[in-house]
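Retro notes (design track)

What went well: tokenization of the new backbones is finally stable.
What didn't: we kept losing track of which sequence belonged to which structure.
Fix going forward: every design gets posted as structure first, then sequence, in one message. First example under the new rule, 429 residues:
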């Protein structure tokens, strides 16, 4: 029956299953025959030997199956795999690529911060906190608007004040009619622009024009008086000549009283009209000490605001020797630099001498006018001859300029009398 089959184990799994089934059937049959024979009470030798051989084959099959299972387990192949699936399994990278992309996204995706939870007391009503707006922000915005409007208004007022006094016209006039005093003219205009740009001041502006004879001090004073009379009115400009308004010492009490009352009336009127008056004092070197004290009292008056808004121009030839000496000693350096350091170096020397004369000049801004050269004197002659109706011939002008005395320093010639004698010589033509 089952004794003719080979006992060699096959590597094919379906064959193993069929062989196991046949052997099981044979074993059951042999066991049934043995039971029947036992029941009859008789058992032959051949029957016993066949039974032993069947047991040996079963043991060999069991050992073979156990070895096969161990080999397949070592190879990683499941023993009980589906033998009915005939479709080939195709390996692709789709699953691996999808997994890699998913891991990359999870790695690069920013982690969301967990919002803090709001904890409420157990016995209170759960109401989210309200954000209160600070009133300081509104106040700050309002303050910024107010400051902006004030700054804008101040800028507009500055322009209005400067335009009111027509300083551009004054600058053109001075540069056209004043020769050889560019630095002094620019300094004077700078002080006027700074002071006249506003109406409220803490002290009056005091400017002192100093220089030798004939350099144009009185000429500048006359042009200032003429210009300000046209822009602020005749009543707010005073041109005071000491030798004319107070010729003798006996008149000093009356001169002092008249000066005080006149200045008081002018500053009061200027305060009403919101304008700045100008006081021009010429020939200050001849002014007595009593009048100098009066002018200083007017400048230092702080009792009322109208005295603070005023311009004082002091014209004199004080310290003319110091100015002449400085110009002659520094003629070469002044020619090279264009006289930019004249007032910077000369003013300290002038202050020391003027303080000895009177303390009034401590309150003044010094504007020194220097010696005129021969070319400047020739310009004075040409301007005066044009006014008198003469044709300014160049050779004739040079001949007239040569008749005046000069300081000779190298190749430069500085006039000793400036343009003071020009008018008299032109009148003789």
């Amino acid at each position: 029956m089952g004794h003719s089959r080979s006992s060699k184990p096959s590597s094919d799994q379906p064959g193993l299953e069929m062989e196991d089934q046949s052997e099981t059937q044979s074993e059951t049959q042999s066991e049934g025959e043995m039971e029947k024979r036992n029941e009859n009470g008789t058992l032959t030798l051949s029957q016993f030997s066949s039974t032993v051989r069947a047991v040996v084959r079963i043991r060999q099959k069991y050992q073979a199956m156990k070895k096969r299972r161990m080999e397949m387990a070592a190879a990683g192949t499941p023993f009980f795999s589906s033998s009915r699936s005939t479709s080939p399994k195709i390996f692709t990278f789709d699953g691996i690529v999808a997994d890699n992309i998913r891991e990359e996204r999870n790695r690069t995706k920013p982690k969301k911060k967990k919002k803090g939870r709001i904890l409420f007391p157990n016995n209170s009503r759960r109401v989210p906190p309200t954000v209160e707006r600070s009133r300081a922000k509104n106040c700050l915005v309002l303050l910024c608007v107010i400051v902006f409007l004030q700054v804008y208004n101040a800028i507009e007022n500055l322009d209005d004040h400067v335009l009111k006094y027509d300083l551009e016209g004054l600058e053109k006039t001075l540069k056209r009619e004043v020769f050889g005093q560019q630095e002094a003219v620019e300094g004077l205009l700078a002080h006027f622009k700074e002071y006249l740009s506003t109406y409220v001041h803490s002290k009056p502006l005091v400017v002192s024009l100093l220089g030798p004879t004939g350099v144009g001090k009185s000429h500048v004073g006359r042009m200032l008086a003429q210009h300000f009379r046209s822009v602020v009115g005749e009543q707010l400009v005073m041109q005071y000549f000491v030798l004319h308004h107070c010729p003798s010492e006996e008149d000093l009490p009356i001169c002092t009283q008249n000066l005080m009352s006149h200045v008081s009336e002018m500053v009061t009127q200027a305060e009403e009209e919101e304008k700045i008056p100008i006081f021009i004092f010429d020939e200050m070197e001849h002014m007595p000490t009593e009048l100098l004290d009066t002018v200083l009292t007017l400048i230092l008056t702080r009792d009322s605001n109208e005295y603070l808004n005023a311009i004082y121009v002091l014209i004199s030839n004080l310290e003319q020797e110091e100015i002449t000496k400085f110009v002659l000693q520094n003629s070469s350096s002044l020619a090279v630099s264009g006289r930019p350091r004249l007032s910077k170096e000369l003013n300290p020397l002038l202050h020391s001498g003027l303080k000895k004369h009177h303390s009034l000049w401590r309150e003044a801004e010094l504007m020194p006018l220097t010696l005129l050269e021969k070319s400047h004197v020739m310009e004075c002659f040409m301007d005066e001859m044009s006014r008198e109706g003469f044709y300014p011939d160049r050779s004739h002008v040079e001949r007239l300029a040569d008749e005046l005395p000069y300081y000779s320093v190298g190749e430069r010639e500085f006039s000793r009398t400036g343009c003071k004698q020009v008018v008299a010589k032109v009148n003789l033509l």
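Added context from the reviewer: Strands lie at 205-210, 237-241, 278-282, 311-316, 365-368, 406-409, 412-415.
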